[in-house]
Amino acid sequence: AIQTAVSRPDYYLPSASGVTEKTRLDANMPDICIAYQLHLECGRLINLYDWLQAFVAVIQPEEAESEEEEESGSKRKSGKSSKQEVDTVLHAHFIQAVSELQFLGFIKPTRRKTDHVQRLTWGAC
């Protein structure tokens, strides 16, 4: 039941998303559902930074496209690349979603690589 809830939020929350497709990611989905769908696309170890960037690309697709254009051109005036600057509210949403997935037993931290988490479930059961 938990996997159904996080993989198909429209099954329990009809207003969560207008999309009824099982595999389509939508910014209107709850954060934990987006994080869960992205976690299904990864292997045994998940790099948290890459996962965050994919999460941001789903939530704010227009900003992700503009970042790619800026990277191919030049850096910002401040000298920092736009990749390093993630909205703190969006970052907090991601951290909460990852913490909820850890609480539910889908992932756990690793001792070998501190910037990775280990996936504990397989498939989209």
Characterise this structure.
The chain has 125 residues and is mainly α. It is 49% helix and 8% strand. The protein has helices at 2-7, 9-12, 31-40, 48-59, 61-72, 88-104, and strands spanning 45-47, 107-109, 116-119. Strands 1-3-2 form a 3-stranded antiparallel beta sheet. α3 packs across α6 and α4 crosses α5 (61-72). The protein starts with a helix and ends in a 6-residue tail after the last strand. The relative contact order is 0.16.
Q: Strand-and-helix sequence, N→C?
A: HHHEHHHEE
- Shape descriptor: globular
What is the chains' assembly state?
single chain
- What is the total tally of β strands? 3
Radius of gyration over C-alpha positions, nearest whole angstrom: 16 Å
Structural class: mainly alpha
Largest sheet: 3 strands, antiparallel
Brief sketch in words of this structure:
This protein is mainly alpha-helical and 125 residues long. 49% of the residues lie in helices and 8% in strands.
Keywords:
single chain; 125 residues; mainly alpha; three-stranded antiparallel sheet; 6 helices; globular
